Amino acid sequence: MIDDFCQDRANSAGLTGTYKAWISDGITSAASRLTHNAGPYKRVDGQIVAYSWDDLITPKTGGIYLQNPININESGISEGDVFVWTNTRPNGEIISSVNHCDNWTEADFSLWASGGTTGETGSNWTVGTGKTCNGLGRLYCFEQ
């Protein structure tokens, strides 16, 4: 369902390929859902995010994970610093088995989920913040 959103957005922007969300629910981690690419992860503007899956999930000096923040949307427009739904640790594993908006099916103010921030290159790109499930947030969509 969430992957369909990523695919629809990619198709609407004229991007080819298959796209899935960097997101974990209560059972399945992003690491187990996504292809572990040996080549580079790039934003649509061509800037390198990570040189490989291992580079994506491994901290560098100073706790930096990403070469560039993932703050460009599928149309190449800067999003700045906005919240992204993830429930995913920097290594691709699940943060919480319960805080995931009922497996990403509920927009309920009584539920809460964790996420990251698009302008970050440290661990906060995927973890470090959260909000109630009725709030707005983005998704990170990765080509598979």
Observed structural traits:
globular; Mannose-Binding Protein A, Chain A; two-stranded antiparallel ribbon; alpha+beta; 144 residues; 4 helices; 17% strand
Description:
- By secondary structure, this protein is an alpha+beta fold.
- The chain has a single domain, classed as Mannose-Binding Protein A, Chain A (Roll).
- It is about 15% helix and about 15% strand.
- It is built from 4 helices and 7 strands.
- It has helices at about 1-10, 30-35, 55, 100-105; strands at about 20, 40, 50, 85, 110-115, 130, 140-144.
- It has a 3-stranded antiparallel beta sheet with strand order 4-5-6, with no helix packed on it. Strands 1-7 form a two-stranded antiparallel ribbon.
- The radius of gyration is 14 Å and the shape is globular.
List the helices and strands and how they pair.
Elements: H1 2-12, E1 19-21, H2 30-33, E2 41-42, E3 48-50, H3 53-57, E4 83-85, H4 101-104, E5 112-117, E6 129-132, E7 141-143
Antiparallel strand pairs: 1-7, 2-3, 4-5, 5-6
Quick description:
Helices cover 17% and strands 17% of the residues. The protein contains four helices and seven strands; from the N terminus they run H-E-H-E-E-H-E-H-E-E-E. It has helices at 2-12, 30-33, 53-57, 101-104, and strands at residues 19-21, 41-42, 48-50, 83-85, 112-117, 129-132, 141-143.
Could you tell me the mean pLDDT? Answer: 96
What is the CA-atom radius of gyration, in angstroms?
Answer: 14 Å
Helix content range:
10-25%
The CATH first-level class comes to Alpha Beta
* CATH architecture field: Roll
Through-space gap between termini: 16 Å
How many structural domains in the coordinates? 1
Any low-confidence stretches, pLDDT <50, length ≥5?
none
Total DSSP helices: 4
